[in-house]
Amino acid sequence: MKEGWEAVIGLEVHAQLNTASKIFCACSTAFGQEPNRNTCPVCLGLPGALPVINREAVRSAGKAAIALNLKINDKSIFARKNYFYPDLPKGYQISQYDQPFSEHGAVEILTSERDEGGRAQQWRAKRFGITRAHIEEDAGKSVHDIGDPSKSYVNLNRAGTPLLEIVSEPDFRSSWEAYDYVNFLRRTLQYIGVCDGNMEEGNLRCDANVSVRRAGETRLGTKAEIKNVNSLRFLQKAIEHEIDRQIAVLETGGRITQETRLWNEKEGKTVAMRSKEDAHDYRYFPEPDLPPLEVSDTWIAALKAELPELPEARRQRLMSEYELNADEAFTLTSQRELADYFETTAKAAGHARIAANWILSELLRELKNADVDITACRIKAEDLGALIRLIDDQTISGKIAKEVFAEMFATGGSPAGIVEAKGLAQITDAAAIEKIADQVIAANPKQVEQYRAGRTQLIGFFVGQTLKASGGKANPQAVNEILKEKLGNCSDH
Ligand SMILES: [Zn+2]
């Protein structure tokens, strides 16, 4: 950011709660169905249809609120947010307004600016306030015909899907702080199993309110809202661009308009969409068809007891328990299933450090190449642990282990079974290695002569040749010892 300026950023995250049915009716929330199939009089907004709150959606919202340190209000009120759009058949969205489900939260997370190559520079803990998290319904979707611009369609399958809108305080001062926070929210919601967190599929959406001011100024500048960014990286780029744009406007004597802007990834800039409404434009009023939502302390305590270890706590535990660094622990806790996988592997291997190395390098690379998630990985954590044990007890060499690993990844076979079937067990039998070493020595008289004349660094050559002749199966340490003995101790010459 340009010297002498400060950015002020607030974030609104809409998380789709992954319940089986919609928030006010029994329609399925299944994705990818035939358009308008999952609808009924309630979510179509037909006259006389009455909404009934989905208990599971409230439980999910409650878990999220607890995980984000929000205070859950014992009584919250649903309100109608009035506006017209073709994908909103009722003419209003059922949301919450002045008495939200939960408020006054905060999270402390690790954040860092990034260098040109996207690498974190220095992680530091920073606290971000969360104003509120309230429950609301999603709207439907307008689909515009690319082939025929005169045609648009409305799909109401999504209408009535439960959402949790998480509104932050304007506590962010850079695009990377925003990135780290949304990433944290996504991980947390996935961990506790209430949201799939897939930004590309739209089940986690983020709007950013961005303004800038001169350093030292306490008044807030006019903000622009960036809407509908569908990836974390785009969000970061959009905010970065918007900060620069606003500074440029102000420095040339211009004024910022309060408006909604969209991120155009192709052109790498934000573009104005429409002027931004104020809350009073929506004419909120209490929803007459739904009673106040009331929850008890016992209910909250029971939900709390159901929560798993949260990602940030787990990251810190992995660091201290397994001596991992911050980046390693961060990657391993990026997904609950991956963290489980690591801990199971570490236990089975009896060696956490080596288990972490295998997962962070080989396994994650192969998963990425195959474009699959850890949940679809064919190698069971116990089997990866067993593979590490085979190296440890010298049944196979590290090199052969990579071959076995590739086979395990492709077939899901057990390491012992693959080693057995392919005859890959390491040759530790001295007589067998001596035989191969003799052949190598006999085939390379010139090198033997040089070695014996004092060029002892040629031992590497002999070891390499012997390992190669053994098909990579000879134990390197045994090869080394046997060769030295056979070639004789020459440093005395
Ligand atoms: Zn319905």
Structure description:
The mean pLDDT is 92. Helix 1 (55-67) crosses helix 4 (297-306), helix 5 crosses helix 6 (326-332) and helix 12 crosses helix 14 (459-469). The strands form four sheets. The chain has a nine-stranded mixed beta sheet. The chain is 39% helix and 20% strand. With 493 residues, the chain is α+β, with helices and mostly antiparallel strands. Helix 3 (232-251) links the parallel strand 12 and strand 13. The structure holds zinc ion. Zinc ion binds at residues 22, 25, 27, 39-40, 42-43, 160.
Fold topology:
Layout (H helix, E strand, L loop, with lengths): L4 E12 L38 H13 L3 E2 L2 E2 L1 E5 L9 E5 L5 E10 L12 E14 L3 E4 L7 E4 L6 E7 L6 H17 L12 E11 L9 E6 L2 H20 L7 E6 L4 E7 L9 E2 L6 E2 L2 H10 L4 H12 L3 H7 L3 H14 L2 H19 L10 H12 L5 H14 L3 H8 L7 H14 L1 H8 L6 H11 L6 H12 L6
Parallel strand pairs: 12-13
Antiparallel strand pairs: 1-10, 1-11, 2-6, 3-16, 4-5, 4-15, 6-7, 7-10, 8-9, 11-12, 13-14
Helix pairs in contact: 1-4, 2-3, 5-6, 7-8, 7-9, 9-10, 12-14, 12-15, 14-15
The chain binds zinc ion.
Q: Main beta sheet: strand number and arrangement?
A: 9 strands, mixed
Oligomer: single chain
Q: For the CA atoms, what is the radius of gyration?
A: 30 Å
Small molecules (ligands, ions, cofactors) in the structure: zinc ion
Q: Strand order of the main beta sheet, please?
A: 2-6-7-10-1-11-12-13-14
| Number of helical stretches of at least 4 residues | 15
Mean pLDDT, to the nearest integer, reads 92
| Residues in helices, as a percent range | 25-40%
Which outline best applies? elongated
Strand content: 15-25%
Uncertain runs are: none
Structural class: alpha+beta
Question: How far is it from the N-terminal to the C-terminal residue, by CA?
Answer: 67 Å
How many strand units?
16
